[in-house]
Amino acid sequence: MKCWRSIHTIFVTGLTISTMLAGCRSPREIHYVGNADLQYYKGKALAIEYPNSDQPAIQEVGYSLKPHTLRQRTKDDVWELPLAEAIQTAVSNNKMIRFRNNPQYTDFSPSVYDPALRETGFLFGGRGVEAALADFDANLTSTLTYGHNEQYANQKVAPNFVNTSDTGNFTSQIGKTFANGGFIAINHNWNHLGTNSPNVLFPSSYSGLLQAQYVQPLWAGGGVEYTRIAGPARSELGLGKITGVSQGVSIARINTDISIADFEAAVILMLSDVEELYWDLYLAYRQYDAEVSNRDSSLRSWSEVKAKMDAGATGGSAGNEAQARENYFDTRARVESSLANVYLIENQLRRILGLPVNDGRIIRPADDPIEAEFVVNWEASLLEALTRRVELRRQKWQIKSLELQRIAAENVTNPQLNLVSSYQVNGFGDTLASRQTSDGVTDAGYNSAYSTLTRGELTGWNLGLQFSMPFGFRQARAQLHNTELRLVKARATLSAQELDISHELAEAIQKIDSAYITAQTQLDRKIASARRVQTTNAEYEAGVKDATLDLVLRAQASNAAAEIAYFKVLIDYNKALLEFHARRGTLLEHDGVQLAEGEWTDAAQHEALRRAWARSYGWSNDHLHTEPEEFSSPNPYLKSGFQGLPPQDAETISNEWPAETSPEVPTSDRLEEQNVPQ
């Protein structure tokens, strides 16, 4: 009966508590009868909200003037912008790398912060060098707990005795992992026991130890090479719990180099877009000048025909006047369209340079495009492209990373064999610390626990081996096989990239040659068109029978089209030179841009100096091999197996890259007669 009442009481109590908890979790009363009311969900849960964060707009945005338009033309100052200054402006202003065809920014957009973000990465799979080195930092752990416990003794001798104990526990450990995978730990522990038990010698006592432990992997997961690649394999964790073999310092360093290569590739693409927009703006101005000249000629022709029509002279018919009028408005529309194109491209160039929309100036390119012939050495350019292209450098870093990972993956296909050892000095005493050693009970004197510990009379040690292995090594062998396949794919990718680069370089050379030859032809056309305008005007003014107004207007339009076509192909020639430098991997050098690390902070400089002083006190040991094998070089390696050059030329190219020659165009009369407008 008592048991049933107890169960009933527990049930009622539990039901009451559950009801109270349910009431706390339901802020609103829910009714299942009637129509559903989802206004809160519709009006609140689905409403668009905005972050409570207000960052002031930058000066380039807040103080920008209205953009240039055809309706609202202003008298702006002309900014004669050289190409070198445009490149310098783009590099200086853009912390986020800007591209011409990708104006949107995400978390994955390239920026100047990317190498530093990679270097300071700390998450698994994306750790930087500092996070990888943190595995070798000494780690201190310590705990201090107190407790009290009372328990009935359940003894016939003392039926009313309640055993009371007061406990205290203090543990501390400092551990460090070495570069060879070994782990050392120093433990210092104390346990306090205060009890009323009649069977103990000291009612209040302290027992503890000072212990040194060392664990060294001897087979799988051991050695400096594995630790540098995969990171330390703690014996207490087991190799099976370590995911991958890419968490070491070497792989983290290679990942940083890959990030730098990605950043360099983004900068190269940005500079290519800057130069293309620069020459596009130059072409837009030339097209605008040609259309203005054609419009002015059309206006003069219309004025002359209208004057003849008003005077009733020959050639002043109403048909001729209507044709001249229509031709004038056509050329005027072309001028307006070309001016709008100037404004559009100028705004695009401002965006990629990191400039405001309008600062009271309008950009006009100050440099003229190259008109001289650019002679290319195919063999030297191909060898240079295979050496300097940033894509190849990135892929080679990837191959080097996989080669190191394969070594570590092969290491963990062996059984795990660890050397375990420890040595400890034990301490015991009635008190924790005291100058007196006599306890009044024993001859050895256990009054002070620290005194017993420092005497070193109570010692202990352990020495042995730990062995473990999974039958079949299925996971380890799968990891090794996967790494080998990735390495094979990476090498195949490198070969494919080299083949594509050779075709890209060949295509750039073909564009240079084609654009130069076409530019010469278009220049001849431009000269002939100018002479046609002069001849047609002279014949029309002289009243030649077959000379009509239509021929004059056609000649003027043809002259404008010829001038635009010449400058267009001339810009194509300069863009081909730009593409050639990009395909050869020398665009940054051609533009005078060098990538370097920013200045260190004062704290970093002081820390580097402190470490340099610390290293200066060390001495070398000729019997130890402590320097790891190099896997990087400050200079690019020449491509082995290159058959594009004779043996006598290979040494010359390896020491000094031959420069391309740029002879002047042999037809000097063309340059004199082209009359390029400024």
In short:
By secondary structure, the protein is α+β, with helices and mostly antiparallel strands. The protein has helices at residues 2-25, 39-45, 59-62, 83-93, 114-119, 129-133, 224-230, 249-311, 318-353, 378-388, 390-411, 449-455, 474-542, 549-584, 587-591, 602-616, 647-655, 668-673, and strands at residues 77-81, 139-152, 162-177, 183-195, 204-217, 361-365, 416-429, 459-468.
Explain what you see.
With 678 residues, the chain is α+β, with helices and mostly antiparallel strands. 51% of the residues lie in helices and 13% in strands. The radius of gyration is 42 Å and the shape is elongated. The longest helix is centred in the last third of the chain and has 69 residues, at 474-542. Strands 2-3-4-5-7-8 form a six-stranded antiparallel beta sheet. Strands 1-6 form a two-stranded parallel sheet.
